[in-house]
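Notes from the 1:1 (GR / supervisor)

We went over the backlog. Supervisor wanted to see one worked example end to end before approving the batch request, so GR pasted a single chain during the call. The sequence is below; no edits were made to it. Supervisor asked that the structure be written out right there so they could see what the output format looks like.
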Amino acid sequence: MWCYDFVFDACANGQQLKCLTLVDEYTRECLAIDVAGSIRSRRVIDVLSRMISVHGAPRYIRSDNGPEFVSTALMKWALEQQIETAFIDPGKPWQNGTNESFNGKFRDECLAMEWFRNRIEARIVIEDWRIHYNEVRP
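Structure output shown during the call:
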């Protein structure tokens, strides 16, 4: 089972950051952190497709009921990939505990510690942190 959610931040130049975090619940590995100003369902599908090509498809994907995760395009794509969705109940983030825990570490250990001048720098620093999280930190 994979789980995913969004974390928000901002750059020093005022650009907004929206980070899609994707975590494997079994291994606790952070498969991806996609960083952009805006992430819609099509981009979520692109990230998931890339990760499936590397790791294989999960049986389930857990998320909240955000518009990017319940869109018709994403539901159709998941059905085609034979991936079942496991939505948490509204207002109960603890039902997505693995991702919420990861997002807390991501915020405390990366976002709160860094001062990004722009999105390009944010993408680079965040990817370096993700690799460190997966390969050095455990």
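Supervisor's comment: The two ends are 20 Å apart (CA to CA).
Batch request approved.
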